[in-house]
């Protein structure tokens, strides 16, 4: 049998002398065996990991230096590049006399690095901190230091403090020497003359988007092309002077010069606003045209809008009524009927008519004049001078329906004005086949047809221009950023009636001012030809009528017409006839415009046309 080896660490139990086991003492404490480490294995593991990391770096180094150095360098450069937008300036809107109606001004946004502000010190090195900075800055921002302090005190590196600061305000702030205060340059649209031509210029939103008027319709011309500035920055964000730096210069927008005469525009706005208040009217407009060129010298209205604060005006007052609001012109449209009858040789100014208060048309429709009267013996010139509805219809029935419609169309009713203006209307003129039994007559005295104030004024400008109709003109020229001027295209002309017809109508209209319903429109020293208008105003809801439109349109000097003025008031409650309500506005604006344009007084006395016969 093999001998078993005994573990020397164990001892055989001692025997007593008598062969019996000795008594067992207390057990020894357990022994914890310590595992001996394996340094070779650990070393191999460490070496393996080091080799892997080394190989990764070597592979990356080979890739960078050998295979794709340019693309990686470009990617790194892109991360270091900063691109800053350089906004182009929006072009200006100018009046014909050079007055700035809309421009772009520089504004500044004040920004604080709160950590730097907290290190604000005096000249002796004593830390003043954000609290003193707030006290010094508050008066310049017109606020309280307590309100300002939370924006300056903290750990933010970029905190907007105020927007829309002028250059002067920013310079004062910068002069305080407070560290951590910087600014970013922005642009803001400004309208230096406030509400003067505000309904024409329109306005832009707080984000610079064009919202109304010429700002909207000429947005393409006014808007420039933004540039940019690109520079390479270090880890602290500062520009690396010799890094990749470049500038793409912005191209500013074109400026637009209007035909508007700012002085006449201002005066017209003052007069119509005063008359709207006096007549307790809903609104009013004044249009001033240059007869020979078709240029719009003024397009005034009340209420109007200040483009610097459009939100202060009602939504209905932020547009341009002159170009977009349509109404039945009433008796001013009798000029078209008169011109048509003369042009077609159906009547002469001296043709005699017996004119009753009421008149029944062949189809049974009955019409009446504005005031009761007996049968009057009036010449055709007298019918126009007295603005007789029944007399106009008796003479006008000589025109066929097609002729009535053709002349209304040729004078511009129901036709585009040619202006690219937001909300501009062509008016309303149904075809002759769509006229009912009453409308075929009412169109001859300005009801059943609708037009804008500009369209109605254009009728008189056509008569004053010897029967040639010009497209109304609002833009005079475009001006490049370098100052190069491009004149707008000359307005096209279309003959509507002969020069003889136009001059005879003008003479007949002088009778309206001298002897008829327009005596309040007379201008001392000048011969004036014009026409009153009083039309029923359609109700906004439910059909029918709920007020009146009072107007007066005329030209001067009548012996050589230069200027047309059209004044209109909607739903006046303190009187409603065109002569007394709108005539005074015409008289004041025409007097001012003639003087402002240097138009000499009339050189000949008017030879009155017979108004009555026996």
Automatic annotation (TrEMBL):
<dbReference type="InterPro" id="IPR036138">
    <property type="entry name" value="PBP_dimer_sf"/>
</dbReference>
<dbReference type="Pfam" id="PF00905">
    <property type="entry name" value="Transpeptidase"/>
</dbReference>
<keyword id="KW-0472">Membrane</keyword>
<feature type="domain" description="Penicillin-binding protein dimerisation">
    <location>
        <begin position="86"/>
        <end position="240"/>
    </location>
</feature>
<dbReference type="InterPro" id="IPR012338">
    <property type="entry name" value="Beta-lactam/transpept-like"/>
</dbReference>
<feature type="region of interest" description="Disordered">
    <location>
        <begin position="1"/>
        <end position="32"/>
    </location>
</feature>
<feature type="domain" description="Penicillin-binding protein transpeptidase">
    <location>
        <begin position="284"/>
        <end position="590"/>
    </location>
</feature>
<protein>
    <submittedName>
        <fullName>Penicillin-binding protein 2</fullName>
    </submittedName>
</protein>
<keyword id="KW-0812">Transmembrane</keyword>
<feature type="transmembrane region" description="Helical">
    <location>
        <begin position="43"/>
        <end position="62"/>
    </location>
</feature>
<dbReference type="Pfam" id="PF03717">
    <property type="entry name" value="PBP_dimer"/>
</dbReference>
<feature type="compositionally biased region" description="Basic and acidic residues">
    <location>
        <begin position="1"/>
        <end position="10"/>
    </location>
</feature>
<dbReference type="InterPro" id="IPR050515">
    <property type="entry name" value="Beta-lactam/transpept"/>
</dbReference>
<dbReference type="InterPro" id="IPR005311">
    <property type="entry name" value="PBP_dimer"/>
</dbReference>
<keyword id="KW-1133">Transmembrane helix</keyword>
<comment type="similarity">
    <text>Belongs to the transpeptidase family.</text>
</comment>
<dbReference type="InterPro" id="IPR001460">
    <property type="entry name" value="PCN-bd_Tpept"/>
</dbReference>
């Amino acid at each position: 049998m093999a001998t078993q080896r005994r573990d020397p660490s164990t001892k055989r139990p001692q025997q007593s002398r008598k062969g019996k086991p000795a008594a067992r003492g207390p057990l020894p404490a357990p022994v914890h065996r310590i595992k001996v480490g394996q340094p070779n294995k650990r070393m191999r593991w460490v070496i393996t990991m080091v080799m892997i990391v080394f190989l990764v770096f070597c592979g990356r180094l080979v890739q960078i230096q050998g295979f794709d150095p340019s693309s990686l360098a470009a990617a790194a450069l892109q991360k270091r590049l900063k691109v800053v937008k350089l906004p182009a300036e929006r072009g200006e809107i100018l009046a014909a006399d050079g007055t700035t109606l809309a421009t772009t001004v520089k504004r500044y946004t004040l920004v604080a690095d709160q950590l730097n502000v907290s290190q604000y010190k005096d000249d002796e090195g004593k830390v003043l901190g954000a609290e003193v900075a707030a006290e010094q800055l508050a008066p310049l921002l017109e606020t309280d230091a307590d309100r300002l302090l939370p924006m300056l005190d903290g750990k933010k590196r970029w905190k907007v403090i105020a927007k829309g600061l002028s250059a002067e305000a920013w310079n004062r702030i910068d002069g305080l020497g407070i560290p951590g205060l910087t600014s970013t340059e922005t642009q803001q649209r400004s309208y230096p003359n406030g509400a003067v031509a505000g309904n024409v210029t329109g306005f832009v939103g707080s984000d610079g988007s064009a919202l109304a008027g010429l700002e909207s319709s000429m947005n393409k011309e006014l808007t420039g092309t933004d540039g940019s500035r690109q520079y390479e920055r270090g880890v602290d964000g500062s520009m690396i002077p010799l890094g990749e730096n470049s500038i793409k210069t912005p191209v500013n927008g074109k400026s637009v010069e209007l035909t508007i005469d700012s002085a006449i525009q201002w005066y017209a706005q003052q007069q119509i606003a005063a008359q709207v208040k006096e007549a307790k009217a809903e609104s009013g407009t004044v249009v001033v045209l240059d007869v020979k060129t078709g240029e719009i010298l003024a397009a005034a209205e009340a209420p109007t809008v200040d483009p610097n604060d459009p939100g202060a005006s009602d939504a209905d007052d932020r547009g341009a009524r002159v170009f977009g609001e349509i109404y039945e012109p009433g008796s001013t449209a009798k000029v078209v009927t008169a011109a048509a009858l003369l042009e077609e040789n159906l009547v002469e100014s001296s043709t005699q008519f017996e004119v009753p208060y009421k008149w029944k048309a062949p189809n049974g429709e009955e019409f009446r004049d504005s005031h009761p009267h007996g049968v009057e013996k009036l010449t055709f010139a007298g019918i126009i001078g007295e603005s007789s509805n029944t007399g106009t219809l008796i003479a006008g029935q000589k025109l066929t329906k097609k002729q009535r419609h053709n002349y209304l169309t040729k004078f511009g009713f129901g036709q585009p004005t040619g202006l690219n203006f937001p909300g501009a209307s062509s008016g309303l003129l149904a075809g002759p086949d769509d006229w009912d039994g009453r409308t075929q007559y009412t169109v001859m005295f300005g009801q059943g047809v609708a037009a804008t104030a500009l369209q109605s004024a254009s009728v008189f400008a056509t008569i004053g221009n010897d029967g040639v109709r010009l497209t109304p003109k609002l833009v005079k020229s475009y001006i490049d950023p370098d100052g190069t001027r491009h004149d707008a295209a000359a307005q096209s002309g279309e003959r509507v009636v002969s020069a003889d017809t136009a001059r005879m109508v003008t003479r007949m209209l002088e009778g309206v001012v001298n002897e008829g319903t327009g005596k309040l429109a007379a201008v001392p020293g000048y011969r004036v030809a014009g026409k009153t208008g009083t039309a029923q105003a359609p109700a906004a809801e439910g059909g029918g009528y709920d007020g009146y439109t009072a107007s007066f349109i005329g030209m001067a000097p009548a012996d050589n017409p230069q200027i047309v003025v059209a004044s209109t008031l909607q739903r006046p409650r303190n009187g409603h006839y065109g002569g007394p309500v709108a005539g005074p506005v015409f008289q004041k604006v025409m007097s001012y415009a003639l003087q402002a344009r240097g138009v000499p007084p009339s050189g000949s006395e008017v030879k009155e046309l017979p108004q009555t016969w026996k």
